[in-house]
Design a protein that fits this description.
Blueprint (H helix, E strand, L loop, with lengths): L1 H7 L20 H7 L23 E10 L3 H13 L5 E4 L15 E3 L6 H7 L4 H22 L10 E5 L4 H14 L5 E3 L1 H7 L7 E5 L3 E3 L2 H14 L3 E3 L6 E4 L7 E5 L2 E10 L11 H4 L1 E10 L4 H7 L6 E4 L5 E5 L5 E5 L18 H14 L8 E11 L6 E5 L4 E5 L5 H17 L9 H4 L10 H18 L6 H8 L7
Parallel strand pairs: 1-2, 1-11, 2-8, 4-13, 11-18
Antiparallel strand pairs: 3-7, 4-6, 5-6, 9-10, 10-11, 12-15, 12-16, 13-14, 14-15, 17-18
């Protein structure tokens, strides 16, 4: 297992993630047993048919378009660039492996929203929301069409998403979301407690809202590997294990942009930067982005009897409507992926492999899982992992250009990048074209988030916000002075 983990580029340990005598606070024997044999690596990446890495760059490359980052944003940008112009020369460089970062560690929800939900979008872009909703729905349709057209085997299923209320105060929010969605052309279905429990049997549910068309579930790693295959087939040259250490101009402001790498350099007429939260190559991005660690568990496959005990015949993705929320879904082999709730920021925007494992959070997630599904007592978890989400103060992607328009960047998806990354790729290509398009004229594209302060204020603010959101969950959703101040400042921390 150790060699496999190292190849994937994830933290690996030869002992269970939790054991008696560890520093984790006391947990029940049942929870300890459920975690005893958990593998500390992403379930999606633990597959026997993962493609072999391409060799790293050794020497110099000259290209029309260089793409930095082998996640969804980078892969879609490279593929769409070739779709728009098959003769365009494209090089993609990835510092680790394709799908190594958030692309291979997420829950596999492919949502239509490009604004991190209706409420967030209406708070920030109220005049544009009809357009943004239309573009988001079209984008999800085009993701599905690409998966079908290219024959990518990634378990893409348009199951929709079920938002569930676990406290009475959340029911008003479901009704308000339903009203807003209907006003914008959506057709979600409000469910009573009995109706939502008929969809998915949990005593915790008091109501629900089923968006039947606005979300799909997918195996994100296999989607990324499929996009990689199509990029290579289209002539994109991909170099893995090729981190970019710096960006400069070769011969003045009109010359090519140079990407420095350990084994050489890429000279490009245009550059698309899609590196997420990792090692910002533009200084300005350090002020807008923070890496938030999210943690996930995956169970062993449910037996037919266990699956029957909870229902879930429509196999929707599920998300709770509290501030600290869980998200979960079934995999193709009837495991339950269970993540979220305990989003963690480490001082100094720290990112390192050791932080991928957090036994305290895994124990908390397991306790919450069995409280939600007591009928699954005795089920065991097989995989546990963490990874960083690139978040910004407006919770949805932001864009910009540098190097006199020859470089375009995107970042800040805040966990909803599986679907929105294709939209983001189209924005990058439009920005690099230098032409005015429907996408480049959007306020979503033309504006930036409010920057985060430097440390130690950054950490103080984030930790105070986390504590305040948890307090709001305990107090019927009532937002304290700190959260109301953020609301007035346009930060609006609500998820």
């Amino acid at each position: 297992m150790r060699g496999h983990c190292q190849e994937l580029g994830v933290a690996c340990r030869s002992t269970p993630i939790w054991k008696a005598g560890s520093s984790v606070p006391a947990i029940s024997p049942a929870v300890a047993r459920s975690l005893a044999d958990t593998r500390p690596l992403p379930y999606w990446l633990d597959q026997p048919h993962a493609p072999q890495a391409t060799p790293p760059l050794d020497g110099r490359e000259h290209t029309d378009l260089a793409v930095i980052g082998g996640g969804f944003s980078g892969l879609w940008t490279a593929l769409l660039a070739k779709e728009r112009d098959p003769g365009r020369d494209v090089v993609l460089v990835e510092g680790r492996r394709i799908a190594w970062g958030g692309t291979g560690r997420n829950g596999g929800f492919c949502a239509a929203s490009i604004t991190h939900g209706l409420s967030n979008g209406l708070d920030r872009f109220p005049g544009e929301m009809p357009t943004l909703e239309r573009l988001g729905r079209r984008n999800l349709d085009e993701v599905e069409a690409a998966v079908t057209g290219y024959g990518i085997d990634c378990d893409f299923a348009r199951t929709g998403e079920l938002a569930v209320a676990t406290r009475d105060w959340q029911l008003d929010g479901l009704r308000e979301t339903a009203r807003m969605a209907h006003d914008l052309g959506g057709d979600p279905v409000l469910l009573t407690a009995d109706e939502v429990r008929a969809e998915l049997g949990s005593p915790a549910y008091l109501g629900g809202l089923w968006d039947r068309a606005g979300c799909a579930t997918v195996d994100p790693a296999r989607l990324a590997w499929g996009l990689r295959r199509e990029c290579l087939a289209a002539g994109v040259r991909i170099y893995e294990h090729t981190p970019v250490s710096g960006i400069s101009n070769a011969t003045g402001p009109s010359g090519p942009v140079v990407l420095r790498t350990p084994g050489g350099a890429v000279f490009a007429r245009r550059v698309a930067l899609a590196a997420g939260a990792f090692a910002p190559l533009l200084r300005r991005l350090r002020y807008y982005l923070v890496p938030i660690y999210d943690y996930v568990l995956v169970t062993e496959p449910l037996t037919s009897q266990q699956l029957a005990s909870i229902g879930w015949q429509h196999r929707q993705g599920v998300g709770e409507t509290s501030n600290q929320f869980h998200y979960y879904r079934l995999t193709s082999d009837n495991r339950i992926l269970w993540g979220g709730y305990d989003a963690v920021y480490y001082y100094g925007s720290k990112i390192k492999a050791a932080l991928d494992q957090r036994p305290t959070t895994f124990a908390l997630l397991a306790e919450h899982f069995f409280a939600t599904f007591p009928q699954l007592d005795g089920l065991r978890f097989t995989h546990a992992w963490g990874g960083v989400i690139d978040t910004c103060s407006r919770f949805c992607a932001f864009f910009g250009t540098a190097r006199t328009g020859r470089l375009a960047y995107v970042a800040g998806y805040t966990g909803l990048g599986v679907g929105a990354s294709r939209f983001g790729a189209n924005v990058l290509l439009d920005l690099l074209s230098g032409e005015t398009t429907e996408l480049t004229e959007l306020a979503l594209v033309r504006t930036r988030p409010i920057p985060f302060p430097p440390e130690p204020l950054r950490s103080v603010g984030i930790q105070l916000t986390r504590a305040s959101l948890a307090a709001a969950d305990r107090n019927d959703g009532r937002r304290n002075l700190w959260l109301r101040t953020l609301d007035r400042a346009g930060l609006g921390f609500d998820s």
